[in-house]
Amino acid sequence: MDTNAKSGVNEAKQAGYPSDLRGNTLRVYLFLLRNGPSELREVQRALNLSSPSLASYHLSKLVKLEYVAQDVEGRYSAIKDASPDILEGYTKIGAALVPQLFFFSVLFTVLSAYFGYKSLTAVSYTPDLVGVSVAMVVLLWWETLRLMRRLVTMS
Fold first, then answer.
1. pTM value?
2. Which domain covers residue 52, as residue numbers?
């Protein structure tokens, strides 16, 4: 196992992911979560897996772990109840997975821009207020990007 793979496994354990849910298995789960019910070949082609049997292996693993269900037509779909274990700190909006702190980051960015502008035009808004809001924006964006990188690293 190379150094990057080892660090990915360690990050999975630290992040609280089940030990079986990493690498391609996690990629398959995230694909199903984003794209909805899909057939085995769709998963294989979309994720550039080398063969249908490899896609089948990862899908079977997810079914066994109860993160995915297979319908009577053979289509696989992510079970919504399982996602909080894996996607702690994320919100699903349509097909996108968005870090929950993203919304606060946007809010504080807008507030900082507003107070920054007001501090230039009105004496009553002090530089301290702008300093605090800029610090909050930096902190929230840092945490948001950290969450985004964690998911990308794991997939």
1. 0.57
2. 3-84
